[in-house]
Design goal:
The chain has 393 residues and is an alpha/beta fold. It folds into two domains: 300 residues, Alpha-Beta Barrel (TIM Barrel), CATH 3.20.20; 79 residues, Translation factors (Elongation Factor Tu (Ef-tu), domain 3), CATH 2.40.30. Helix content is 26%, strand content 25%. The protein has ten helices and 24 strands. It has an eight-stranded parallel β-barrel, surrounded by five helices. Strands 19-18-24-15-16-23-20-21 form an eight-stranded antiparallel sheet, with no helix packed on it. Strands 8-9 form a two-stranded antiparallel ribbon. The model has no long low-confidence stretch (mean pLDDT 92). The structure holds iron/sulfur cluster (SF4). The site of iron/sulfur cluster (SF4) has 12 residues, from helix 7.
Length: 393
C-alpha cells in the first residue's frame, strides 16, 4: 500500500495529519533541520509524537537535512541518539556526514533527502548500498524518469506530490544567503525567489509590473494514479510551515484519491478533489516537472492572483449530544451564518449557526476573539478535531 506522507510543524499538526489520513509524518527537530528555526518539537514532543503516531500504526520521520559547515557538526551523535530514544522511524538526511554517522552509530533508518538531488539509478543504488532504505527523488523529474528508476531499484522511492517548489535544485541556491543573510541550506531560506522585484536601469524602472523568480506550487491530483501504478513507495506533501487547516485539507484530499483508486481502480470525479483542495490556503499551483520541463505556465513571473481565504473559523474540542452544544476553539471571526463541518469521520455537513455562547456562557452574535473556547449549537453530532468553515470567496 502506498504511503501518504504529510508535513507537521508542531505536535498539534502531527496529530491532525494522522487523524485526517496520513500514513506517516515528517517533522523537524530543533537541530540539523532545514526548518530548524520554525520547529516546535522538543525531545518530549518528539517522544509524544512518536507514541501518538505508533498508536495509530503510523510513522514519524525526522528531517536532519542541513548541509552542515565544519562548525555545525558538534552534537550530531547525541542528537541522533535522542531521536533513536524517541523511537522515530527514520531520519531524512542529505549530508554524507550525517548519513554515515546515523548508519554507523545508530539503528535509525535513513532516507536520502531531496536535497541530494538524486535523479538516476546508479545514485539511488549508491545510497541503497550504503544502507539507506529510501530515496526521495529530486523534484525536477518527469513521470517517465520516475517510472524508469522506480522499476529498476531496490530502494523505496519517495516523490513530492504537493506544495512549494524551489526555483533552485531544492535549496541549492544562495539568493536567501545574499539578500537576507539567511542560509537556505542551514534552515534559513527566506523564499527570496518569491519576492517581487522591480527591473531598473539607470535608476529608472524599465518594466512597470514587478516580477518574481518563483515557480508555482506543485499539485499532482491527476498524477497520483500513475505514481501508484509505477510502484512509488511514498507520496509526499510539502509544507511544515503550513497551517493546521491546510494540512487537514490537503491530507484528506490525497487520502481520498488514494483510497478511491486503490478500491475501484479508477477516479470517477477529479473535479471533486480539485474543489476540495481549493479550501486550503494554496498559492497558484501547476504540475511542476511531471510532464517535462516547465513552461511559462508553471512560473510566477508576475504578481499572483492568490487570495488567502480565512474560511477556517473553529476547531471542535468536544460535543455534548444532549444539549447539541459543541465546544469550539475559535480560529477566525464568524457570525450567525451558514457554516460547514469538515471532518475525518463523515462527509462535509452544513448548518445554520443560530446560537453561540462565549467562554462565560453569555449569548453572542459574533465570535471575534482568537483562540477563545466558545459553545456553538450544532444540530448533528460532531467530533473532536472536526473543523468548522465559513463559505467565503
Ligand atoms: S530562495 Fe527560492 S530558490 Fe532559493 S533556496 Fe529558497 S525556495 Fe529555493
Amino acid at each position: 500500500m502506498i504511503e501518504l506522507l504529510a508535513p507537521a510543524g508542531d505536535l498539534e499538526k502531527l496529530k491532525i495529519a494522522i487523524i485526517y489520513g496520513a500514513d506517516a509524518v515528517f517533522i523537524g527537530g530543533k537541530e540539523f533541520s532545514l526548518r530548524a528555526n520554525a520547529s516546535n518539537f522538543t525531545l518530549d514532543d518528539l517522544i509524544e509524537g512518536c507514541e501518538f503516531a505508533h498508536s495509530y500504526g503510523k510513522k514519524v520521520y525526522v528531517t536532519t537535512n542541513v548541509i552542515p559547515h565544519q562548525n555545525d557538526k558538534e552534537g550530531l551523535l547525541k542528537y541522533l541518539k535522542n531521536l533513536e530514544l524517541a523511537k522515530v522511524d527514520a531520519i531524512i538526511a542529505a549530508s554524507p556526514y550525517i548519513i554515515d554517522t546515523a548508519l554507523e552509530h545508530t539503528n535509525l533508518e535513513v532516507h536520502i533527502s531531496t536535497q541530494q538531488s538524486v535523479m538516476n539509478i546508479p545514485t539511488v543504488n549508491y545510497w541503497y548500498d550504503k544502507g539507506a532504505t529510501r530515496v526521495v527523488l529530486a523534484r525536477d523529474m518527469d513521470l517517465n524518469e520516475i517510472k524508469h528508476i522506480t522499476g529498476a531499484v531496490k530502494a523505496e522511492i519517495e516523490v513530492f506530490i504537493h506544495g512549494g517548489m524551489c526555483a533552485g535544485f531544492s535549496g541549492r541556491c544562495s539568493l536567501s544567503n545574499h539578500l537576507t543573510n539567511r542560509d537556505a541550506n542551514r534552515g534559513g531560506c527566506a523564499h527570496t525567489c518569491r519576492w517581487f522585484f522591480d527591473l531598473e536601469k539607470d535608476n529608472q524602472k524599465i518594466e512597470e509590473v514587478p516580477f518574481s523568480m518563483s515557480s508555482k506550487d506543485l499539485s499532482a491530483v491527476h498524477e497520483i494514479t500513475d505514481l501508484i501504478d509505477m510502484g512509488v513507495a511514498s507520496l509526499k506533501i510539502e509544507g511544515r510551515m503550513k497551517s493546521l487547516h491546510y494540512i487537514a485539507t490537503v491530507v484528506q484530499t490525497y487520502r481520498q484519491i488514494i483510497d478511491e483508486y486503490t478500491k475501484t481502480g479508477m477516479i470517477l470525479d477529479y473535479q471533486k478533489y480539485i474543489e476540495m483542495l481549493k479550501n486550503a490556503e494554496n498559492r497558484e499551483t501547476s504540475i511542476g516537472f511531471f510532464h517535462g520541463l516547465p513552461s511559462v505556465d508553471e512560473q510566477l513571473f508576475e504578481k499572483r492572483s492568490e487570495k488567502v481565504m480565512q474560511n477556517f473559523v473553529g476547531l471542535v474540542i468536544s460535543y455534548d449530544e444532549s444539549s447539541k452544544l459543541a465546544v469550539v476553539e475559535t480560529k477566525n471571526v464568524f457570525t450567525k451564518e451558514t457554516l460547514e463541518v469538515f471532518s475525518p469521520y463523515m462527509e462535509t455537513k452544513y448548518f445554520k449557526n443560530e446560537y453561540m455562547l462565549d467562554s462565560n456562557d453569555q449569548p453572542i452574535e459574533r465570535a471575534s476573539k482568537a483562540k477563545e473556547r466558545i459553545k456553538v449549537h450544532i444540530p448533528f453530532v460532531v467530533h473532536p478535531n472536526d473543523m468548522i468553515r465559513a463559505k467565503r470567496t
